Amino acid sequence: MLLRRKKPELEEMAEGELIAAAKDGDDGAFAELVRRNQSIVYGTLLRLAKNRPDADDLFQETFLAAWRHLGTFAGDAKFSTWLCRLAINKYKDKMRADKARLTALPTDDGEDDPLLRIPDDSVSGSPEGEILRAETVAEVRLAVDELPDDLREALVLRETYDLSYDEIAVRLSVPVGTVKSRIARARNSLKNILEKRNFFPPDPSNRQNETKGGTEND
Amino acid sequence: MTDRITCEEAELFISASLDGELSPEEQASLDSHIASCPDCRRSLEEATALRQIVGASLRTPDESLTANVTAAVRADARFRRQSRLVRRVSAAAAALLVAAGLTVAGQSAVGRGLYESAPNASERTADIREPGAKTDGITAGDADEATSDDIDNETLHYGPETGKTIASGSTGTVSSVLPAKTLSLPWQFFAGLALAAAGIAWLAVLFARRKRAAA
């Protein structure tokens, strides 16, 4: 039967328990799974789609499909891996539907195409494994907004969509060297802004999904 | 032999190295500079940490996006629960229909007498059934009920006319001469069967849908 658990309970549950509950129809447990995996899925989709509206649509499709086909998750792989595969498939479906690519479609074996590589939490510098507090996310976004336009554009294209310097140079119609220096200056300015607000250097508590402060949504 | 770089250049190289955009030579220059410059080494560490936070922040979906997803899931869950309830009630109703249909058919067939040819009360032909011989419990119950139809039947069955056949030309009762099992079934029999068939078809559809939904 359906039992609506309270939020603090949900956040302490192990992933396996949450999945079992969600399979039973507990949408609150599934919402917690969404929260824990939203960044890795969204990050994957941003890299694939290279624009926010498409990534947003695919994000919704992915998680709705995950909810409906939860029965097919056998628990033999990591849940985040399963989600990312779903996301990649949704992206491929969209590509086929849009016929946006004239070049050959990616093969079904996602491992071949570097674009479709599933982000690896263990690789250092890969931010997907992080679950940041909502405060941190908000502060960083505010700081990014404060950057001068040209610096911000370059940094956002790099950090959001994983575009190469060459690709960014094309998009912004500037030389690659300019892209390189703008991104470096953007990062430097960001560091100064966040340091002034005591958000940098980060202490470990910035990275936990602590909810004692009750800042998370829902 | 690697080129020596200044700390200012190193800062630029550090940023590019985080993005994997350094040539091998540039990377070598950076590595050797870092090895001997603690300030720049710390810069590298800070830049790495900052990049993780910035990347994760910019790749975190908006709250509205996540809220939409969880709302859609919640609505779907609610729909499934309601559907399940509707399906169960539906199945129960279908089963009732089958039972009712069979009962009506059975009662009309046996209660009215399989052997009667016409529903016209005044010209009913008597059958040859013995007064006490009942085919099943239903007619026994019927006999006790004081419906006008049953009383008519009773009269016919148990009255002195039992055994006599009344030839009634208007109904063409060749069938009344034949013993027992004639083919003249009352309309209620077929109506009951139709109801039961409808109920069974309904159940079949429900089960087929559930199979499809579970797939």
Question: How is this structure best described in words?
Answer:
The complex is a heterodimer of chains A (218) and B (215). Chain A is flat and about 55 Å long. Chain A contains nine helices and no strands. In chain A, α3 packs antiparallel against α4, α3 crosses α5 and α4 packs across α5. By secondary structure, chain B is an all-alpha fold. About 28% of the residues of chain B have low confidence.
What distinguishing features does this structure have?
heterodimer, A: 218 residues, mainly alpha, flat, B: 215 residues, 8 helices
Quick recap:
The complex is a heterodimer of chains A (218) and B (215). Chain A has 218 residues and is mostly helical.
Describe the secondary structure blueprint for this structure.
The complex is a heterodimer of chains A (218) and B (215).
Chain A: H1 7-12, H2 15-23, H3 27-49, H4 52-68, H5 79-98, H6 134-146, H7 149-161, H8 165-172, H9 176-196
Helix pairs in contact in A: 2-3, 3-4, 3-5, 4-5, 6-9, 7-9, 8-9
Chain B: H1 7-18, H2 24-36, H3 38-59, H4 63-111, H5 137-144, H6 148-158, H7 174-177, H8 187-214
- Please tally the helical runs of chain B, counting DSSP H or I stretches of 4 or more residues: 8
If interface size is counted as residues with C-beta under 8 Å from the partner's C-beta, which chains form the largest one?
A: A-B, 53 and 38 residues
Number of strands of chain B: 0
Percent in strands of chain A = under 5%
Rg of chain B, please?
44 Å
Overall helicity of chain A: 55-70%
Rounded mean pLDDT score of chain A: 81
